[in-house]
Amino acid sequence: MTVTRRAAFAATLGFALAVSAGAQAADPIKIAFIDPLSGPFATTGESGLRSFEFAAETLVNQKGGVLDGRMFEIVPLDNQISPKESLIQLKRAISDGINYVVQGNSSGVANALTDAIEKHNKRNPDQRVLFLNYSAVDPALTNEKCNFWHFRFDANADIKMDALTDAIAENQDIKKVYIIGQDYSFGKAVADAAVKMLGEKRPDIEIVGNELHPIGKVKDFTPYATKIKASGAQAVITGNWGADMVGLGKAIIEAGVDAPIYTYYGAHDGITATFGELGEGIIRSVREGSLNPPTPEFKALNDGFKAKYPDNDINQPRIFNTVAMLAMAIEKAGTTDPVKVAYALEGMEYDTIMGGKVWMRPSDHQAIQDVHISVHTNKDIVVDADNSGYGLKDEKTVTMAGKDSPTSCEMERPDA
């Protein structure tokens, strides 16, 4: 081989190696989305998946990614709302080298995942995983079951119930309350918190019903609605979500119960459209993020989302907070190492596109943020839900809700 040919070959080889190294450096950062994509709660899971994909694209990838060009890639894994199936999907994600897991539907699933991830990380220090919980709000997850690897981006059930019961306590016309929810850890946590907080704030209020029903299995909620009407309840509290929220809410309203229904998940994903005029002034939701009036930034983002997904809305702003804060933590850490990223997340403050701030409390990894009580209405609605003309209008705001709330969390922290 002549000197000229050797030089050309070397140059070509060097270019190829540089391209290969660049491609390797730009490998996407994969995030496993473990939530229901089939079964009775598929609509809720699919809505969350679209939000994660859109958040990753608009907040990270279109801005050049993180760490000089690494993009976020959301990997959907269907858990069928089953803790057992969720653990199977977690093993699949880990075997694919994924270091970040997001999940939100069902605190039962979240409890299974956080236990499994903590055990895995102890046994496999070179393949650790962070669990970014965007919607499972069982208080235990940031209290007695807390661990370093779990971060919650939604207000927990107690923080939300504190806001709900404040609103109920202020209404002196309410003397009787009926509590009903799904029979699993979250539903039980909602009921326990409601009884405790109403007792503290309004001991004159009578709890005229407190029951749980099978999750995802009730086809006709009429018998429950009949009991609620017979009880004389002047307000209803429920943590129901998905199809169970639709079924229960419709049955209560159609039974002629003249009482506000205070909910955790009483809007979007077809729920608002289903209630329509029936829900006017009746359905109230506790949530993060102010929808009406919206900030200009959120209005533009929501318009872009609906242009891509005409039948969906941005109904979980905390998903966008999760993606943005993860990207910020990776940049701050200068690496995707889960331990360093976790330490970067602790204490992080983030100004949201919906207005307000999110602070990741270091002591228990519970996100602290503004919480709103909103009413289902078609009056003064700029951002509606389900293309229905109806939406959520804020009635009450609690600034940085839960900031001073106690926690029993005692977590072991690894060396940074």
Secondary structure blueprint with pairings:
Elements: H1 3-25, E1 29-35, H2 42-60, E2 72-78, H3 83-95, E3 100-103, H4 107-123, E4 130-133, E5 150-152, H5 157-170, E6 176-182, H6 185-201, E7 206-213, H7 222-231, E8 235-238, H8 243-254, E9 261-263, H9 271-275, E10 283-287, H10 296-308, H11 317-333, H12 338-345, E11 349-351, E12 357-361, E13 366-377, E14 391-401
Parallel strand pairs: 1-2, 1-3, 3-4, 4-5, 6-7, 6-8, 8-9, 9-10
Antiparallel strand pairs: 10-13, 11-12, 12-13, 13-14
Helix pairs in contact: 2-11, 3-4, 5-6, 7-8, 11-12
Brief write-up:
This protein has 416 residues and is α/β, with parallel strands linked by helices. The protein contains twelve helices and 14 strands. The chain has a domain of 130 residues: Response regulator (Rossmann fold, 3-Layer(aba) Sandwich), CATH 3.40.50.
